[in-house]
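Per reviewer request, we include the raw input and output of the structure prediction for the construct analysed in the revised manuscript.
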Amino acid sequence: MTNNPILRFLSVNLFFICFICFVAVWALTYFLVDEPLCNQFLEGHWPTWKKVSYEYTHLAEAKYYFAFTLGLLFLWGLENSFRHFGFPTWDRALWRFHLYRWSAQFFKVLLLAGIAVHVLKFIIGRKRPYVSNDGGWVLCDPSVFLPFEWDYRFHSLPSGHSQLIFTVATFLSYSLPHRFQWIKVVLFSIALFLALTRVGTADHFLSDVLAGGFLGVFVTWWLLRKRGQQQKGRFEDGKPPNEAVPSRTVHGG
């Protein structure tokens, strides 16, 4: 621990400082950017970005990432069943253990972060930008809120796509070996690009995207930090985590 009081304060209160900065940026976006930016897209400005947004925004849908993690868990279960019945299987018990743990943790993070974002959508009830005058609403009005509304047209804040893609980027970044740390920049650049497509399609205000991204990063960070603390307590006797893998008889090769 550093003796510098300023650095000590920053290290202890890092999350609080980040949260205050996020709230300030979100408030500025809400009051100064949301409405004019939305009108720009709905009036036909920036047609290239609008076209790109409609082309790629589906890549931030949750179904792809849930299918990926469930597919890995299915492969693990299938291999485990084969090994149980004596069929030739992989000869790496440690690899199987890490595959299951990584896939299960990824699924858990996606699920809990997804639940959190949908609960907030329902509680906040913000109108989506494209909802027009047919219900007495004004296009691109970011100040309309109907809390506890089941209609998905009032589930704008926070953005679920943004939460999902930043959850994925944060989890994958956490999983990277140290020699591949530069890939974090690529992952978060892709996440930012896909999140901003939600503004281009007029499905969300920019402040929705900011809130979704922050939620995805925070929930993922909190869950992974909690898991790290549990593992630290589990191996506090000094044994490395690899020794905790149960030994099994491996059939075949």
